């Protein structure tokens, strides 16, 4: 598979550069058959937020794919999901995510917990290498993104891959209307 690239960024094969991603992400990439289609680009950490990177490299927000972590409880059981949505949309936490998780009141997982449990840096949390037990919900528009820009587990780089590959991640559930 050809390596994806973007103007102004040097794309490297993610499998060959584990030093540019979180250890948990490197391990997940090494065991994922589709990882040969994943590139990594090094960026200044201050550009880790999608809007900042999009502005700095003149990229459309629709190419950015955000991973937000949501949790809720039902009958004493906590249910956690990572939700993948295009950066020009927002996850429908109060309706779609609430229904899918079957919880009373969903909310974003507190930053400290998200970082500790994912073993990834805040602003770099990615769907590649999520903890066991977390669901992975993918908005139905994400697979249509030609070149998706996602976190790498650290703030100093991003992963580039076809959006269709995100729907092929282990445990991925493609959901119509996950984002609005």
From TrEMBL:
GO molecular function: aminoacyl-tRNA deacylase activity
Natural source organism: Nocardioides antri
Protein name, entry field: YbaK/aminoacyl-tRNA synthetase-associated domain-containing protein
Domain YbaK/aminoacyl-tRNA synthetase-associated as annotated: residue spans: 45-166
InterPro entries named in the record: YbaK/aa-tRNA-synt-asso_dom_sf, YbaK/aa-tRNA-synth-assoc-dom
UniProt signal peptide: none
């Amino acid at each position: 598979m050809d390596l994806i690239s973007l103007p102004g960024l040097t794309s490297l094969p993610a499998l060959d550069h584990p030093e540019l991603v979180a250890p948990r992400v490197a391990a997940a990439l090494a065991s994922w058959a589709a990882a040969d289609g994943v590139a990594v680009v090094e960026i200044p950490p201050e550009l880790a937020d999608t809007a900042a990177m999009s502005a700095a490299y003149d990229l459309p927000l629709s190419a950015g794919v955000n991973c937000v972590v949501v949790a809720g409880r039902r009958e004493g059981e906590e249910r956690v999901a990572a939700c993948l949505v295009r950066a020009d949309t927002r996850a429908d936490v109060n309706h779609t995510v609430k229904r899918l998780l079957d919880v009373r009141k969903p909310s974003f997982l507190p930053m400290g917990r998200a970082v500790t449990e994912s073993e990834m840096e805040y602003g770099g949390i990615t769907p590649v290498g999520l903890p066991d037990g977390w669901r992975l919900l993918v908005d139905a528009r994400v697979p249509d993104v030609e070149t998706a820009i996602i976190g790498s587990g650290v703030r100093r780089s991003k992963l580039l891959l076809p959006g269709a590959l995100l729907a092929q991640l282990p445990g991925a559930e493609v959901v119509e209307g996950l984002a609005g």
